[in-house]
Amino acid sequence: MDESGGSGQPRSGTDGATEHPAVPDATTAHPRPDGDSANDDSRPDSTDTTAPNGPTDTMAWEKQSSSTRRSGRTGDAAGPSAAGAPAGERDGSMESAVARRGGEGTDGSGPGGGGPDARPPAGSGGSGPQPPPRRKGPGGGLLMGRPFGVPVYVAPSWFLVAALITWVFGGQLERVLPELGGARYLVSLFFAVAFYASVLVHELAHTVAALRFKLPVRRIQLQFFGGVSEIEKESETPGREFILAFVGPLLSLVLAGLFYLALLTVEPGTVPGVLLAGLMISNLIVAAFNLLPGLPLDGGRMLRAVVWKITGKPMSGTIAAAWVGRALAISVLIGLPLLTQSGALGAEAEDIGGMDTVMDALLAAILAAIIWTGAGNSLRMARLREHLPELRARSLTRRAVPVETDTPLSEALRRANDAGARALVVVDAHGEPLSLVREAAIVGVPEHRRPWVAVSGLAQELTDGMRISAELAGEELLDVLRATPATEYLVVEESGEIYGVLSAADVERAFVKAMARPS
Predict the structure, then answer these.
(1) Beta strands across the sheet bearing 152-154
(2) Which H or E run includes 96?
(3) Rounded to 5°, angle at Cα 54 from 132 and 122
(4) Which of 91, 138, 245, 448 is the most buried (most CB within 10 A)?
(5) Beta 217-223 vs 226-231: how paired, if at all?
(6) Backbone angles phi, psi at 181, to 5 degrees
(7) How far apart, in Å, are the Cα atoms of 405 and each of 99, 329, 424?
(8) 488, 502 in Cβ contact below 8 A?
(9) Burial profile 169-202: b = 16 or more Cβ within 10 angstroms, e = fewer
């Protein structure tokens, strides 16, 4: 299963755990039966970005309005004007805004608002600049290798399912090959490993196709119910989407054919014969199940591509395939136990005991839950992607005031208040930006200490990743912010002129609004 929507779908992967709270992830991650789970996220209200003004929040510290021109001179505000701020944010002072933040806590639930990068507020004098924490790798279990440069992990849940397969298959071997004795469990363990090697081939097919289409793949993970290929972007065309989904089941069918050909060369009723027959059947089941036409399965992604091609709208394809997936989940929940009870799956009805009935019902419930959840995740992620282009750095940027390194905090706040700004940029004598004053640090400085605290002691030194273009929008903006986790970013025009400061918490709030809005 490839994850950009579930079984056989490229997934726009969520980045792995980072020490800094992650910027909202626009990647798709959905559970699917040949793999486990995945996840999703959101976008902001649309704002007019045609005007040169437009940050969502303006930083003001006293109840007054002001119109100040943008300038690179120390003390003049840079960036969008307060007129672009939403209602409720245009009035009030920066100090009142800081006070509100202090009342809410400084953990900053937004991306970059908490964690190690949201360091404890500075007290008297504050703390010096500190570099942002280094991001961790994607993780996800035991690293087995990096085929094609993509890390392959075995999740802890795999060991549980390997033990379960060993026990169940060992019981079947006792009836077919009783002479094996206790060695049957070693044969069963080999079957479990070989089966998951087949699942890995299925996932590598998705991965190779994604890399061929220049779609980044975050990782492959082998889990309880199979495998997941976490593809971080969605296909640009329905044709590529179809191919990306189809190659997984196709490889499973090819493997089943190869095991069948190998089966013809060995004696039936032997250990090799039983193993090859089991692997042939299991790969046929994986292929057939993933070809069912509902998200998050590969077949659902293929159906989405077909509807997308016909309508010209990827959202229409997602809606159709997701609802088929939900119908499929209900069918599995009800139909699988009924088929088992009727003997349609091979066992005689009179040989089916009470425990078998319970296990069948449990398996059906788990599979149905995975399919239903994956279909819902696909719908949510499609809605997010539909709204992501409205997430613009220019419209979310806070108006900023440049101040020199030795400027007292109280004076810097006064200038910001006069300019109707909500951010401070520390510059050198030539007006070149050096660092950003962290809002969380300002909160920790008592008012009576502010005349003696220099802004440089409360600032985060600017790195290359903390300078972003005012033209960034949508998923490209999120990718840039995730690459360098921080609480604030300096937003600049193409000319290099300071436009303002983007708070990661503002991005978080705008991102969350997207999930609450209908398509």
Answers:
(1) 2-3, 226-231, 217-223, 152-154, 142-145
(2) helix 94-104
(3) 35
(4) 245
(5) antiparallel
(6) 65, -135
(7) 24, 61, 11
(8) yes
(9) bbeebeeebeebeeebbebbbebbeebbebbbbb
Whole-angstrom distance, CA of residue 28 vs CA of residue 12: 4
Render pLDDT for 465-480 as a digit per residue (tens, 0 to 9): 899 999 999 888 988 9
Both tokens of 511, joined, read 């991102």
Nearest to 98 by CA among 476, 493, 500, 398: 398
Asked if 435 and 404 touch (Cβ cutoff 8 Å), the reply is no
Measured CA to CA, the distance from residue 199 to residue 202 in angstroms comes to 5
Task: Please give the C-alpha separations between residue 101 and each of 18, 96, 457, in angstroms, as whole numbers.
Answer: 24, 9, 20
Q: Measure Cα distances from 456 to 113, 130, 368 in Å.
A: 20, 12, 57
CA gyration radius for the chain? 28
Length of the chain: 519
Spatial contact of 389 and 473, defined as CB atoms under 8 Å apart: yes
Q: Does the predicted TM-score (pTM) go above 0.85? A: no
Q: Which residue type sits at 474? A: G
The tokens 């809410």 sit on which residue? Answer: 104
On whether the CB atoms of residues 341 and 352 are closer than 8 A, the answer is yes
Reduce the DSSP state of residue 91 to 3 states and report it.
coil
How far apart are the C-alpha atoms of 488 and 501, rounded to whole Å?
7
**Residue 500 — left, alpha, or beta (φ > 0 → left; ψ -120 to 50 → alpha)?**
left
Q: For residue 49, what pLDDT is reported?
A: 34
Contact in structure between 409 and 442 (CB atoms under 8 Å):
yes
- Give 181's DSSP letter: G
- pLDDT cut 70: percent of the chain above it: 69
Q: Do residues 369 and 326 lie in contact, with contact meaning Cβ atoms separated by under 8 Å?
A: no
Tokens of 216: 């980044």
CA distances (Å), 137 to each of 17, 122, 234, 483, in order? 7, 30, 22, 12
Q: How far apart are CA 191 and CA 157, in angstroms?
A: 17
Please write the tens of the pLDDT for every residue from 322-345: 999 999 999 999 988 888 777 665
CA dihedral for 13, 471, 490, 94, sign (positive or negative):
negative
Whether 61 and 94 have beta carbons less than 8 Å apart is answered as yes
> Per residue in 482-498, pLDDT tens?
889 999 999 999 998 99
Nearest to 499 by CA among 390, 398, 427, 420: 398
Return the amino acid letter for 435.
S
